[in-house]
Amino acid sequence: MFSASSYSGTREENYEVVIRQFEALIDGESDLIANLANASALLNQFLDTINWVGFYLMKEGELVLGPFQGLPACVRIPVGKGVCGTAAEHRETMLVANVHEFPGHIACDAASQSEIVVPIVADGNLLGVLDIDSPVLNRFDELDQKYLEQFVAALVRHL
Question: Which residues form the GAF domain (predicted)?
């Protein structure tokens, strides 16, 4: 189902393919953890120059580490702290070109240089965030934001 040849189009076409693959993976599966595990694995395979991809889930008022691909990570992040907590607090995607310039950045992996965080909101409730780190400055752009928000929307539709 997944091969390098699946991603031979434009960036836009490749994102559309990965979103369709994700929808096929989670179709008929209601377990959130299973779906998030497959989501992080699929994005890890699809995205280049990243060093961490995964989810933090809202539990008792804070973000708690969920399924991910990468090095061990911070387990709990308060809402409003770091890039993830800020995205959660404002319920908007955070696109950070240089994490070292982000006030209050939480360094779980010293190699991370840039980051994108997409909040997961369903029926007005914040469920968590999708967090992706890169060891490259300015790795993520508005195109990544657009399609990663669509990826998260596909997840929300299947909840």
Answer: 31-157
Domain containing 112 equals: 4-157
Structure tokens at 44: 């890890």
pLDDT tens, position by position, 54-96: 999 999 999 999 999 999 999 999 999 999 999 999 999 999 9
Sheet order of strands, 62-70 included: 76-78, 62-70, 52-59, 125-134, 114-122, 94-96
Domains of the chain: total: 1
pLDDT tens digit sequence for 8-59: 889 999 999 999 999 999 999 999 999 999 999 999 999 999 999 999 999 9
- Amino acid, single-letter form, for residue 127: L
**Residue 104's domain is classified under what CATH number?**
3.30.450.40
